[in-house]
Design brief:
single chain, 503 residues, alpha/beta, Aldehyde Dehydrogenase, Chain A, domain 1, Aldehyde Dehydrogenase, Chain A, domain 2, 2 domains, 16 helices, binds nicotinamide-adenine-dinucleotide
Length: 503
């Protein structure tokens, strides 16, 4: 039996549980449908087949979830942090135990290849362990003595928070946002993306089995403009952690204005990978390919603009084209697949529309530029050459396996082109000139930069973008800064002079 056949059989057994009731909500420890009884359909991008129905929640369900999160907050906040740590570690254990089920469901729901999703499930467990271990020190503060006062600071969890996640690697991203919220002592209402709801349900189930008290983590499914909007407007929700498109972030900021919501945004990108002629070109080629064609190119940190120095461009691009032509497009559950189908018809249409835009703008489609098959949302990995940075293919986030290559002559040109975008999430710089690397990274407008490396995530480092790519940082202690409030307390150390009015 082939690996694909074997995996497909296992998938059938994993999906069976979604059959009867579909994906439901989880509020105050109970699994239940939307109060209105409404559902929407969830289909697989692999063959467009129906997977299950999903609760289509509205403000009533969000209200119930916010109330549950509010009621559960004081006890969760006041639980000794070592107990919270133990529960979060048990959630990580549960993720590891069900890693295959999570990965298979994620592949079927999103079209991502199993070679990447098995690792994404385990990274979810690692996120829980990392923040679990930091829970006991989350409230630590500083002692800042002044002549008359002993000033101390501490941090307290902000309250119930809303977490809104996108459809790209939804499982991993949900853990990345929810684990630090719980470790900080916040309670959570999670609204996952409507295109990929399966694994959010598995995650909340695992949390409940791990002993998380009812109401601490609530899951409400639904559409962004309905359930998502209601969550951002709810007065009992103190902060919104959002991962998604820049224009949605802008809407959320407006929606949250009346209730003065604290927001944390991880948004889009159009990230440059800059290859200078003195770089290790073989490694630069491997990294550039990996960072745009892995995860179907549906990755916020993807290196979607290749800036290559003109004197090495012909040879570099020829090698690149040969590799792109050779990327294996196929069924996500086939272990040899490198690129699977795009998430949804809407997104597929958007990605495909850039093939025509590239032609109209005068770029060359050096590889790909077409659909694969007539069922499922597959596109051939695509490379645009002869591009200019003012073209839509260089300015807009395509969010597919599509790379736009641009040549440059000097370091100054490279910097100008790299920074000439509304976004500023990541940048990748390939050079063996140390002074140039220092100079260039200092001026490159991005929240995260890797030199002579692809994106290798290290959890204690800050994750986030500048410009239209986001507001705020995750990772290390930065996550706690968002989910917690600073408090200052000044204790008088003696009888300092108090100004006497009306005496
Ligand atoms: P999206 O903005 O369309 O949707 C994200 C989530 O927001 C979904 O759950 C959706 O239902 C919800 N939503 C939509 N409208 C809403 C509204 N008015 N109020 C409240 N919630 C609303 O994004 P997507 O298409 O699901 O995800 C892809 C995007 O996410 C890309 O732009 C990508 O770059 C970005 N992303 C960024 C990072 C990062 O770390 N910077 C990571 C992953 C993805």
């Amino acid at each position: 039996m082939s690996d694909l056949t074997q995996n497909t059989e296992k998938l059938t057994s994993y999906l069976a549980r979604f059959g009867a009731d579909g994906v439901q909500n989880h509020i105050a420890g109970k699994t239940l449908p939307a109060a209105s009884g409404k559902v929407f359909d969830n289909a697989s991008p692999v063959d467009e087949s129906h997977i299950c129905t999903v609760a289509q929640s509205d403000g009533t369900d969000i209200g119930a979830a916010a109330q549950a999160a509010k009621a559960a907050f004081p006890a969760w906040r006041d639980m000794p942090a070592t107990e919270r740590r133990a529960i979060l570690h048990r959630i990580a254990d549960g993720i590891v135990a069900r890693a295959e089920e999570i990965a298979f469901c994620e592949c079927w729901d999103t079209g991502q290849a199993i070679r990447f999703m098995s690792k994404a499930a385990l990274r979810g467990a690692a996120n829980f362990r990392f923040f679990a271990d930091r829970a006991p020190s989350a409230r630590d503060g500083q002692m800042l003595p002044s002549p008359t006062l002993m000033n101390v600071t501490t941090r307290l969890p902000i309250g119930p928070v809303g977490v809104i996640t996108p459809w790209n690697t939804p499982f991993m991203l949900s853990t990345w946002k929810i684990a630090p919220a719980l470790a900080a002592g916040c309670t959570v209402v999670h609204k996952p993306a409507e295109f990929s709801p399966l694994t959010a349900q598995l995650l909340v189930e695992i949390a409940q089995e791990a002993g998380l008290p009812p109401g601490v983590w609530n899951l409400v499914n639904g559409l962004g403009e309905e359930a998502g909007k209601a969550l951002t407007e709810h007065p009992d929700i103190k902060a919104i952690a959002f991962v998604g498109e820049s224009r949605t972030g802008s809407m959320i900021m407006k929606q949250g204005a009346d209730t003065l919501k604290r927001v944390h945004f991880e948004l889009g990108g159009k990230n440059p990978v800059i290859v200078f002629d003195d770089a290790d070109l073989d490694r630069a080629l491997d990294a550039a390919i990996f960072m745009i064609y892995s995860l179907n190119g549906e990755r916020c940190t993807s290196s979607s603009r290749l800036l290559v120095q003109s004197n090495i461009a012909d040879e570099f691009l020829a090698k690149l084209k040969a590799r792109v032509d050779n990327i294996r497009v196929g069924h996500p559950l086939d272990p040899t697949t490198e690129v699977g189908p795009l998430i949804h018809k809407t997104h597929f249409d958007k990605v495909v529309s850039f093939f025509d835009k590239a032609r109209a703008e005068g770029a060359t489609i050096a590889a790909g530029g077409e659909r694969v098959g007539d069922k499922g949302y597959y596109v051939r990995p695509t490379l645009f050459t002869d591009a200019r940075n003012d073209m839509a293919i260089a300015q807009e986030e395509i969010f597919g396996p599509v790379l736009t290559a641009i040549t440059f002559d000097t370091e100054k040109d490279a910097l100008r082109i790299a920074n000439d975008t509304p976004y500023g999430l990541t940048g990748y710089v390939w050079t063996n000139d140390l002074t140039r690397a220092l100079r260039f990274t200092n001026e490159l407008e991005a929240g995260m930069i890797w030199v002579n490396s692809e994106n290798v995530r290290h959890l204690p480092t800050p994750f986030g973008g500048v410009k239209a790519s986001g507001i705020g940082r995750d990772g290390g202690d930065w996550s706690f800064d968002f989910y917690m409030e600073q408090k200052h307390i000044g204790f008088a150390t003696g009888q300092h002079k108090i100004p006497r009015l009306g005496a």
